[in-house]
Design goal:
The complex is a heterotrimer of chains A (370), B (256) and C (380).
Chain A lengths: L1 E10 L10 E9 L4 E4 L6 H8 L7 E6 L2 E2 L4 H10 E4 L12 H11 L4 H14 L15 H13 L5 E5 L7 H16 L3 E5 L3 H7 L2 E6 L2 E6 L1 H5 L2 H6 L6 H13 L10 H8 L8 E7 L11 E5 L1 H9 L10 H10 L4 E6 L3 H10 L8 E3 L1
Parallel strand pairs in A: 3-8, 3-9, 6-7, 7-8, 11-13, 11-14, 12-13
Antiparallel strand pairs in A: 1-2, 1-4, 4-5, 9-10
Helix pairs in contact in A: 3-4, 3-5, 4-5, 11-13
Chain B lengths: L5 H17 L3 H18 L6 H22 L8 E7 L2 E6 H27 L2 H10 L4 H30 L6 H32 L17 H21 L5 H6 L2
Antiparallel strand pairs in B: 1-2
Chain C lengths: L4 E10 L9 E9 L4 E5 L2 H11 L7 E6 L2 E2 L4 H10 E4 L12 H11 L4 H15 L14 H13 L5 E5 L7 H16 L3 E5 L3 H7 L2 E6 L2 E6 L1 H5 L2 H6 L6 H13 L10 H8 L8 E5 L6 H9 L3 E5 L1 H9 L10 H10 L4 E5 L4 H10 L9 E5 L1
Helix pairs in contact in C: 3-4, 3-5, 4-5, 11-14
The chains are: A alpha/beta (370), B mainly alpha (256), C alpha/beta (380).
């Protein structure tokens, strides 16, 4: 069902603007679909978020949440913002309290939850972002990456149905970026609809199911990524570059006289497609983890995916080779014909299995074993 | 000391300050100053931050001027120590005004030391809770909390700007120095206004209701506190009345 | 021939105010003349502290910093000298704007150097033209967009006419088009003698651009040298919080599967395409040196011949957008044209006069991955 929708929405910050920040835009975000919003700076991305959560009221058109138009009363907006959380790019703009704990508590306490529940949520959110040891740290003593994680934890503690992230990986080193995306996957598997806006096209291409492209307030495209990136002129005029895997696949397929489809979106899918004929894929032993993990014998690499799995492995003192982007790394091993073991959160098991089995359509079959 | 009830601490501080003002004993001011410094030492593990020490020193220096003005504006009938005219000003220092000046100097310093002791030993959320409990206006409390938070951020930005200016020879000569400092001040101001705009939006996104709820409740003010405060206030008051005039600065320093 | 050491640190140690553990611990590295250098890893504070050691703004607790093989003297006059040779551009443009108008800000550095007024104006003009902000010279910086402010902070550094330009996360927060345009400018500057040192988290960007990397982990330097040597050691890159660039991963994986050596290592898209599809029928490349004297009909005539048109260089780009001309590739011109060429299309790259060597260099780099590419260089 359409979770969030704009119908002919137009919005301007002030009347002196030459062109509205959003000009007659109609888009739909489906529940549970991983959606990305892309566009050059000034295209209207932040206006979009703030229209979703009612901060900006449209000059024309309407915003619908769960098929009902937004009501702009104080009460209704409060409820809306418990359902829809926006995390902006700069953590300093949204961390207000002096300690990590009190800042993460801010959201739940504004919901008038009982103290034990707030405490539970703080513990849980900090665990999810890997900041449990920093609970009592003053916010001024945190590095940029840590502050970004705290601001994310603050939103998670509210347990929103929709999480909107503006440049969640900007300024983070590659490993921390992957950790954030892993967390996002976790949230998607648990039923949260996540909307991400970013300039990192490669990230979007490997993650998003739907993309929304804006340019100077106009909607340029909405739908599956390939539909947009296949049009090189459209991509260029929106100030967006094409993802590497898409671009290289396109050129190489044309040269070899092969079909561009299926379109590989990640490195492992790309390598699978380009692999020599008759490559035999390796096996991935996928182990779902609830709270405890047991060591297994293996000659291949061991990966861990998901915060619960990481916690369990740490407690059981099992070491892993792949701590970041483990699913992708195990799939790359599989494409190379190597076996590997992947511990993942129980909630993410189905998603991981689906992705591994999807390699088959790119030419290399990777088997999932228990 | 961080774990002591902030409300208790606040009322203790207020009580001591009031007693300080109501008695005219220099000894009481020394005692108060001592209490303030001791509390600060205790709460910071005997490592009083240099910045705090500077703050007290700065207050002392400013108070010297204030006290100086008071000392040369005697209107009573005690012995005149110094009477002269300078430009358009008339200086008239008496024993009374001289002693009063010293009293005020030390009162002020003691008061600031005690207040700083409170401030340095109380985390901002607790301080804001205590202020709320004594019914200070919520807007004022909000401003205090936010100023504290953003002061750090802006100081960070200022340091970054300072280094960037250094790299472009911004401190090369007096005139350049002044221009650069002005430019930095403007830059920080602009950044702070931008930050405040964006933070306002973020506060709305997080359902801000006008106050910052405190999660980890500090210790409540128990009856022990009331007893201690009353006992201390009464004790210091009577000690003060008893020791009024014991230290006659005019006599000690000037032999009058 | 070994390159001359431009900037060097030897065992420097630095403690940030009041901290017990150093933010730079025994860091030794050499930045060589003419070598495009990238600094990876570490958190923001460590890297910017390192940069401020390189231009003398910060003095290490122990260890030596050398410029052109001479240790830095931290005396006032020497520091002033050095700042005019080594410029640092931070990540946050708002921390580096000191003028009330765009022009004022660009003039800030040269004015502080004590240069005569005509020279100050000239340098500011040139710098603003290079970053494409001359038309906005009377605007208040507050009114510029983020990308424009980033370019303004770059102009401020360029106006100092440094030998070395150190940039901290130059493409952070920029959309892809602006990021590519900025990288193009960096290449042009480097080629014209202003050595560029860049720090970034974007391993893919660094892989495409840098000749040599230095990697920081926490407060120590753990690697100096060519990129492949670093990424080949997975444990090492993992420990620094880095992951191998996608292109490196893809290349090494495919090579392993084919039982081949991963060298030569493709670093850009066309190189990867060439390696993966050797022996394809290639088109021809024409490099046209722009003199700012052509119009849309000229471009249309090229398109009519089935040629794909891309551009490279700040002057050309300014000319094209000022005259509202349409080309196939407004940014990322060379790479896209090379890829199209591998697909059998004839391509044209219109570039600035001082960019011809850069374009030729990129074309010649392709020969490692297959047949050398046929190209001509003509004037417009």
């Amino acid at each position: 069902m359409s979770l969030l929708e704009f119908r002919n929405l137009t919005y301007s910050y002030n009347s002196r603007q030459k062109k509205p920040s959003l000009d007659n835009v109609s888009i739909k975000v489906e529940e549970g679909r991983r959606t990305a919003i892309i566009g050059a700076n000034g295209a209207g991305k932040s206006t979009t978020f703030y229209s979703f959560n009612g901060i900006f009221k449209p000059n024309a058109g309407e915003v619908l949440y769960r098929d009902r138009p937004l009501v702009y009363t104080k009460e209704a907006l409060r409820e809306l913002r418990n359902d829809i959380c926006v995390v902006v790019q700069n953590p300093d703009e949204q961390i207000f309290s002096s300690t990590v704990e009190s800042d993460v508590a801010f959201g739940p306490m504004n919901m008038d939850l009982p103290r034990e529940e707030v405490d539970r949520r703080i513990t849980n959110s900090l665990e999810m972002v890997g900041m449990s040891e920093y609970r009592m740290r003053p916010s001024t003593q945190l590095s940029y990456g840590q502050r970004k994680r705290v601001s994310l934890a603050g939103a998670l503690a509210v347990r929103p149905k929709v999480l909107i992230l503006d440049e969640p990986t900007a300024g983070l080193d590659p490993q921390m970026s992957r950790e954030v995306m892993e967390l996002v996957d976790e949230l998607c598997c648990s039923g949260t609809t996540v909307i991400i806006s970013t300039h990192d096209v490669d990230l979007i291409y490997s993650w998003a199911e739907d993309i929304i492209v804006l340019n100077h307030g106009d909607l340029i495209y909405s739908g599956e990524p390939e539909g947009f990136f296949s049009d090189a002129a459209k991509t260029a005029s929106a100030g967006v570059a094409r993802p590497h895997t898409f671009s290289v696949n396109s050129y190489v397929s044309k040269i070899r006289g092969k079909e561009e489809a299926p379109y590989p979106r990640t490195s492992s899918q790309f390598v699978a497609k380009m692999a020599p004929e008759g490559t035999v894929g390796g096996k991935i032993r996928l182990i779902p983890v609830q709270d405890k993990a047991e060591a297994v014998q293996t000659s291949g690499h061991v990966g861990v995916y998901g915060y619960a799995a990481k916690k369990a492995l740490k407690e059981a003192d099992i070491s892993a080779d792949y701590l970041f982007d483990a699913l992708e790394m195990c799939m790359q091993d599989a494409v190379k014909g190597l076996d590997s073991v992947l511990y993942c959160d129980a909630t993410m098991y189905d998603m991981a299995k689906e992705r591994i089995e999807a390699l088959a359509k790119f030419g290399v079959k990777a088997e999932v074993v228990q | 000391m961080v774990n002591w009830s902030p409300l208790g601490k606040l009322i203790l501080v207020i009580a001591i300050l009031i007693v300080n003002i109501t008695v005219d004993s220099l000894l009481v001011t020394f005692v108060t100053l001592g209490i303030g410094l001791a509390l600060m030492a205790y709460s910071t593990n005997f490592k009083i931050p240099f910045l705090i020490f500077l703050a007290i020193l700065e207050a002392f220096v400013i108070l010297i001027f204030g006290a100086g003005v008071i000392s040369v504006n005697g209107t009573d009938s005690t012995q005149v120590i110094w009477d002269t005219d300078f430009l358009w000003m008339h200086f008239h220092m008496t024993v009374e005004s001289f002693n009063k000046a010293w009293l005020i100097l030390f009162r002020g310093t003691a008061g600031i030391a005690v207040m700083l002791a409170f401030a340095t030993s109380t985390p901002i959320p607790h301080m804001s809770l205590a202020m709320k409990q004594v019914h200070m206006p919520p807007e004022l409390i909000e401003i205090v909390v936010l100023i504290y938070r953003y002061a750090f951020l802006l100081l960070e930005r200022m340091e970054a700007m300072w280094n960037a200016a250094s790299s472009r020879m911004g401190f090369n000569g007096a005139r350049t120095y002044i221009n650069t400092v002005a430019a930095i001040a403007i830059g920080i101001f602009i950044q702070s206004t931008n930050l405040s705009d964006k933070s306002q939006i973020a506060l709305d996104c997080r359902n801000y209701r006008g106050y910052f709820p405190v999660f980890s409740e500090p210790a409540k003010m128990s009856i022990k506190w009331v007893v201690v405060i009353v006992a201390l206030a009464v004790g210091v008051y009577y000690f003060g009345r008893y020791t009024e005039g014991w230290i006659d600065m005019a006599h000690i320093l000037l032999g009058v | 021939m070994t390159e001359q050491s431009l900037l060097e640190t030897r065992n420097i140690v630095y403690y940030y105010e009041g901290n017990k553990s150093p933010s730079l611990n025994d860091v030794s590295l050499v930045i060589k003349k003419g070598v495009k250098t990238a600094i990876l890893g570490g958190n923001g504070a460590g890297k910017s502290t390192l940069f401020y050691h390189l231009n003398g703004v910060v003095k290490p607790a122990s260890g030596v910093v050398l410029y052109r093989e001479t240790p830095l003297s931290y005396k006032k006059k020497a520091k002033r000298e050095l700042c005019s040779h080594v410029a640092v551009v931070l990540q946050n443009p708002d921390d580096q704007i000191f003028g009330q108008t765009v022009k004022d800000d660009a003039e800030y550095g040269p004015k502080n150097l004590g240069l005569p007024p005509e020279e100050v104006k000239e340098r500011a003009k040139r710098a603003l033209e290079q970053v494409g902000l001359w038309e906005k010279r009377d605007q208040v910086p507050l009114q510029l967009s983020y990308g424009q402010r980033k370019r303004l902070s770059l102009a401020g550094a360029i106006a100092m006419k440094p030998d070395v330009l150190i940039m901290d996360e130059p493409t952070a927060g920029l959309d892809p088009q602006m990021a590519l345009e900025l990288m193009e400018l960096a290449e042009q500057l480097h080629h014209n003698g202003m050595d560029i040192v860049m720090s970034t988290h974007d391993v893919d960007l660094a892989y495409m651009w840098a000749d040599e990397i230095h990697v920081l982990r926490k407060s120590e330097k753990i690697y100096s040298g060519p990129q492949e040597g670093f990424y080949a050691d997975r444990d090492l890159s993992y420990s620094a919080g880095l992951l191998a660039p996608a292109m490196f991963q893809i290349n090494t994986t495919l090579a392993a599967m084919r039982g081949e050596s991963p060298a030569p290592y493709p670093r850009t898209e066309p190189q990867l395409v060439a390696k993966m599809a050797p022996g394809s029928k290639r088109g021809k490349m024409e490099v046209i040196v722009s003199k700012g004297d052509f119009d849309q009909s000229y471009i249309d005539s090229l398109s009519a011949e089935g040629k794909i048109v891309g551009i490279y260089g700040t002057e050309t780009r300014k000319y094209i957008s000022a005259n509202n001309l349409m080309v196939d590739f407004f940014f990322g011109g060379i790479e896209s044209c090379l890829s199209q060429l591998l697909n059998g299309k004839d391509t044209v790259v219109v570039c600035d006069p001082d960019c011809v060597e850069i374009v030729e260099g990129k074309i010649k780099d392709m020969s490692a991955f297959g047949e050398p590419i046929d190209y001509t260089v003509t004037d417009s």
